[in-house]
Amino acid sequence: MTLAALAFAAGAAALQLQAELPALGWAAVLPVMVFLAYRWRSLVIPVAFAIGFFWASALAHLRMADWLAPELEGRDLDVVGVVSSLPALSERAVRFEFEVESTPGGARLPQKLLLSWHRTPWSAQFSDEGAALLEQAVHPGERWLFTVRLRRPHGNVNPYGFDYEAWLLERGIGATGYVRQRGERRKIGSRNGISDLIEKARESVRDRFQSELGATPGAGILAALAVGDQRAISAEEWRLFNRTGVTHLMSISGLHVTLVSGLVAWLVAFGWRHVPAAALRLPARKAAAVAAIVAALGYTLLAGFGVPAQRTFYMVTVVALALWCGRIASPSRTLALALAVIVAADPWAPLAPGLWLSFGAVGLIFYVAQAGPRVMQWIRMQWAITVGLAPAALLLFGQVSVAGPLANAVAIPVVSVVVTPLALLAVVVPVRFLLEAAEWLVAWLLVFLEWCASLPGALWLQHVPPVWAIVAAMAGAVWLLAPRGVPSRPAGVALMLPAFALVPPAPAPGEAWITTLDVGQGLAVVVRTATRTLLYDAGPAYGPEADSGGRVVVPLLRGAGIERLDMMVLSHEDTDHLGGALTVLETFEVRALASSLPPAHALNALVPEAARCAAGARWDWDGVRFEFLHPPPGWEVARRNNQSCVLRVQTAGGSMLLTGDIERLAEGNLLGKALKADVLLVPHHGSRTSSSEAFIEAVAPRWAVVTAGYRNRFGHPTREVLARYEQAGVRVLRTDLDGATEIILKQDSVLVNPERALRPRYWRRIPAV
Predict the structure, then answer these.
(1) How confident is residue 120, by pLDDT bands cut at 50, 70 and 90?
(2) What are the φ and ψ backbone dihedral angles of 534, each rounded to 5 degrees?
(3) In this structure, what DSSP letter does residue 133 have?
(4) Under 8 Å between Cβ of 707 and 681
């Protein structure tokens, strides 16, 4: 049973690695395989694997069949539906899930949409506080008629980056979009289903917490712990939790659901035993199992029945049923069955780091559990979790919180045993003192965590190791943590060393690795030589607390093992090129800055060496030549786009020209220079004001890379520009369709690797435009 359950889960996980979904017709062979497994028990494991694979495939087919049809993208569509989630407010918009009920225009739309309603003068016409009014514009359970514009699930695809498309797929969201300002925005009633009432209750609790505690860190954290609304926690606080290894505590995590259900089960069992009539009808153990399931379900519903909380509910249910049946004697079997149930309900669960970390932590606790004083048991568990999960943390995040054991030793009992119960009690009993007490504890805990984060070596950062090194490290951790009596336990360290000590891959001398990142409507390019790294632009800002520097550039640099930047080039003063620069500068040591920014610009003061890029400046790094071709002196008065720094990177085997946002005026000024390059970064995202025929002819590239946001409002790249490159015989790659693009300039050749083609997944089909 244990191996069959694990094989089923492995089959579902294997499906998530496929570039294409298998045809549903293959599922017809499953009855035959089941029959063979019944006759020959040796086939049970492969049959369980096949069932998991094709079960996940069938659900994926159904889920993706509900995605928006490509021909409906970018059109104004009227839709009637219900707000089905807590609205999330930002400075620019309010975002919410929307369940479609009907479409007056007759178009077939997905069942669930993720919509944004942007701030406009409409939201401010009632009051000066437009943002607050926009937040009050929609509430869970309300039925609205909206005119919307939608697009298929689409996200940036970068090395070491977050897979937004997989996230949307798992949550059953078939399209994203926004409410049109010139169209219908009319409330037409409400729905009062069970899910709507739960969401309304969650909103009421969140609003009460915020009104009573104000805009304090404690209010956001308590709302996250009580109703699962993590959006009130600031990015700075998340960074603190990440650095100290307590992120799992600041949401309705598996630990909290398990502790709450366990506490309720213990209370019910205790009371049940003291009522003889009840105990005679039903054993206290079984009553406790039912109570655990009910408590876990209630807490999960209060969290909005989010996907991570669902997984814990399924796990608690399996354990409780095993307790009911008296089969809890084998923890490994129970955990394997829980894993199979979770994957059966959510085949995309293997994509979530939390699943593996949760099961890994529980498995390690069982693995090292021994009789003895409770303090020693606690220390042993903390040690086992830190060492045992370190390889997984390196693979998933490229870091290990060394301060984690100390931080968790205090944070786990404070948050799980005191703060979370107080927050839940405050939900039921609206007494201000309960919230204030919980908020005081949270404030004290934040001070302690900041102290932990300031300790020397609090966080181990490194590149993401290869998979084989992680597998070896996991085996070494199991060996190292083995019970007494297992020979040569310290030898497990030897198996763990490669994951921590291997030197990350880097270009050979004379080579350049150039990665044009997928940052949406903006630009960021990382250029690496054997020992040096240059960042050309840092992409756009997405909001007050989010930018491409933190979401895209920093993860790539850390995943690749880059510890500093030898130079940052900011081509010109546009937010889609320097919006992420501040985050990068705050995260990494940057030795020099070259830009066309004004001398008084604030970013110049953050780098030891800051200078304007100037035509004719050249240098060599590790046998690779760099040269600025533009702008020449006197161009400071030109339009910002035409001030862009143009950089040429050349090896013995090829070259690439990075052009920023230059337009035809600057292109004309470059004619007559040594422009020829194998790869051209298309100027100004493919705007019609750039890429003149004379410029394309002078560069004569074999490949052209366009950086543009998917279905961006500017229409970049324009059809006429694409036609010019096609007519010139140039192969065009686009970040909106191909993801990040890696160009390898070797000493004798040029290699081009688009990320979507390099790591294909069935949900990353290149959409039609």
Answers:
(1) low
(2) -125, 135
(3) H
(4) yes
